[in-house]
TrEMBL record:
This is HTH asnC-type domain-containing protein. Keywords: DNA-binding, Transcription, Transcription regulation. Residues 3-64 form the HTH asnC-type domain. Coiled coil: none annotated. One of its GO terms (cellular component) is cytosol. One of its GO terms (biological process) is response to amino acid. SUPFAM superfamilies: Dimeric alpha+beta barrel, Winged helix' DNA-binding domain. GO terms for molecular function: sequence-specific DNA binding. It holds the Pfam family AsnC_trans_reg.
Amino acid sequence: MNLDKTDERILKNLMVDARLSARQLALKLGMSTVTVLSRIKKMEKANIINGYSAIVDHEKLGYSLTAIIEIIANNDKVVDIEEELSKFENVCGVYDITGSTDTIIIAKFKERNELSKFVKGLAVIPNVENTITHVVLNTAKEDFRLA
C-alpha cells in the first residue's frame, strides 16, 4: 500500500496521540470522519498500523537498567536465535544487523542481578557464540515514533 500525504498526516497524528477519536482527528485535519475511519481501516488491514499502545516511562515502573547486547551466532542460526530472543518479556527490540555482530537486542531490567541472569542465560541458547553487553548510563532520547 502506498501512502499519500493524507495517510501520512493521519499516521503522524496517531503516533503523537493514539487516543484521538476519528471525529477529533477529522476535525483537526479538516476532513470527514468517514474518510479518516476508512483510511485508518485500510492501514490496519495493510499492517501499517499494527496496534495502539501507551508510551510509558520504564524507569517509573522500576526498569532502571537498559542494556544493549550484541550477539554473535554460530552457523546460519541467526533467525532462530532472534525468534527465541523475541519471546523474552523484557526485550524491547531485536535487530538483525550488518557488521561483525549478527544481532543487537535492547532490553530493560529492574535490578543488576536480573541483567546478570539474563546475560548468562543467553550463553545456553543454542548457537550463541558470544555476547557483548553494554549498560546504558543515561538516555538522551528514546522515542521510536517518527512524528
